[in-house]
Design a protein that fits this description.
single chain; 275 residues; mainly alpha; Endonuclease III, domain 1; three-stranded antiparallel beta sheet; 4% strand
């Protein structure tokens, strides 16, 4: 069979070197899987592990999460970045709880949840329900570029997806994708990143001095301070002032920061004492 040697090699490698101890691999709870998937988006595994464990300890179920306000979730999300993910997670927990507490079982229904795109829906379906879906993300892409497109550049996902589907372990898709992800992560550490040969490759913009950094700092300050005016907030910031005004405006527009009477705080943080 065309993929048999590839499959055998990858399974052996995973059994020897796979990250079997990752906490989100110890459960099939769709809520826990969703938490991990949202946290892992563009965030390193080592950074996610303690945040995931603390988050699950504080909010162990969708029902518990749905009972709190956004400001509390944002405080727990500090250090992960891309804070809209926290808002989407809270909205999803509320939607699931309102619908009776049971997560959807199909990719289509999972995609209907707030902020859940095709990849995240497929990942939850696979890792929670062991569904043989077709997944592609940076580590999976790395493996297929390395093994099947060794000398090609500008390889599109359209070319890779049929190979992923054809080589998928239909009986154990969960473990198969874990193996692909771990092996891809390993390859990127020991080789020049094969993803650079992908048409989808985009080098992440520099973080220091970026608007992303300013957004994160604004949220960190508001997570630890009482509601404050714009000058008071700006005085406490140390990152690039060039992006301050647009970053603050964007956070208000996205519903992560609330402005009232010229003072700013985390959304749903109305209980804080104003000074």
């Amino acid at each position: 069979m065309k993929y048999q040697r590839f499959q055998q090699y990858l399974v052996r490698w995973y059994h020897l070197y796979g990250r079997h101890e990752l906490p989100w691999r110890q459960t099939t709870d769709p809520y826990a899987i969703l938490v991990s998937e949202l946290m892992l988006q563009q965030t390193q595994v080592e950074r996610v592990i303690p945040k995931y464990q603390a988050f699950m300890q504080k909010f162990p179920t969708a029902k518990v999460l749905a009972s709190v306000q956004l400001d509390e979730v944002l405080r727990m999300w500090q250090g992960l970045g891309y804070n809209r993910r926290a808002k989407y997670l809270l909205q999803t927990a509320s939607a699931v709880t309102s619908a009776g507490g049971e997560f959807p079982k199909t990719e289509e229904d999972l995609r209907a949840l707030p902020g859940i795109g095709p990849y995240t829906a497929s990942a939850v379906a696979c890792f929670s329900y062991n569904m043989p879906v077709t997944l592609i993300e940076t580590n999976v892409r790395t493996v297929f570029l390395y093994h099947f497109f060794p000398d090609q550049t500008q390889v599109s996902d359209v070319e890779i997806l049929p190979l992923i589907k054809a080589s998928l372990d239909q009986k154990y898709p969960r473990e198969w994708y874990w193996a692909l992800m771990d092996y891809g992560s390993y390859l990127k550490k020991v080789l020049p990143n094969p993803n650079r040969r992908s048409r989808q490759y985009n080098k992440q913009a520099k973080f220091i001095g970026s608007k992303r950094q300013v957004r994160g700092e604004i949220l960190r300050v508001l997570a630890t301070q009482t509601r404050m005016t714009e000058p008071e907030l700006q005085y406490l910031l140390t990152s690039n002032p060039e992006h301050y005004a647009t970053a603050l405006r964007d956070l208000v527009g996205e519903g992560l920061v609330h402005e009232q009477s010229g003072k700013y705080g985390l959304a749903n943080d109305t209980a804080q004492k104003e000074v």
